[in-house]
From TrEMBL:
This is 3-oxoacyl-[acyl-carrier-protein] reductase. Keywords: Chloroplast, Plastid. It comes from Brassica campestris (Field mustard). Coiled coil: none annotated. PANTHER family: 3-OXOACYL-[ACYL-CARRIER-PROTEIN] REDUCTASE (PTHR42820:SF19), SHORT-CHAIN DEHYDROGENASE REDUCTASE (PTHR42820).
Amino acid sequence: MIVNVWDDWNSNSKTNFITAVVITGGASGIGAEAARLFTEHGARVVITDVKDELGRNVAVSIGEDKVSYVHCDVRKETEVESAVKFAVEKHGRIDVIFSNAGVPEPLLDIRDLNLEAFDRVMAVNVRGAAAFIKHVARAMVEKKTRGSIVCTTSVASVIAGTVVPHGYTASKHALVGLIRSAAGDLGKHGIRVNGVAPFGVATPLVCEGYKIKMEASELEEIFSETANLKGIVLKARHVAEAALFLASDDSAYVSGHNLLVDGGFSVVKN
């Protein structure tokens, strides 16, 4: 359960305290599951995305008293700043940011690398995360909130090969570097920064990323065949649970860590 005991001024009123969470890429997949899970643990959530109809539907399905939706293209710093400002004005502060927005790209030989697609992946997966870390960190420091910043990385952040696109792999390696750098900078403010690195999850975005249209169940079969850990299929909920752990006081002294949720895949494939 999320019970924020980081802030001294709130130490005598934990029972009535509502943790304020921002989740990017919250309109579907891991982000939507995280919104559901965090609210189940008492949080009030602001989700951001560029898919407005889906984002508003998630908010309505969970309850608009618990979840608010804000349009935000993470590539545009002004929109990031506005989303952070909205969350602070609505909830008085931000305790947790789950920077989850990300995009895939076509799987191509490096000799055929599409640099426009590469630039888009880097802009969303790295620059977008950097923008949110920047503005959320400002809000946390200003409010003296000793909060938690969590970013969705990937098993591709620790391995490389021919099964994951080059730009995506590069972006996730870069994101881990950003997480570690930010953890080193923000530690003096009591702010923790971590990553959660899942194996393949058949989210709508991943399904759309494949050239041949594929149902989630079909993609899950492919992932399960290559997975190290058998007998369980990785779902968005599992990743959301790992993010919840990193956001909560259960990981109060964990920072600069990239938590692998890959069933040991990177251990045996590295």
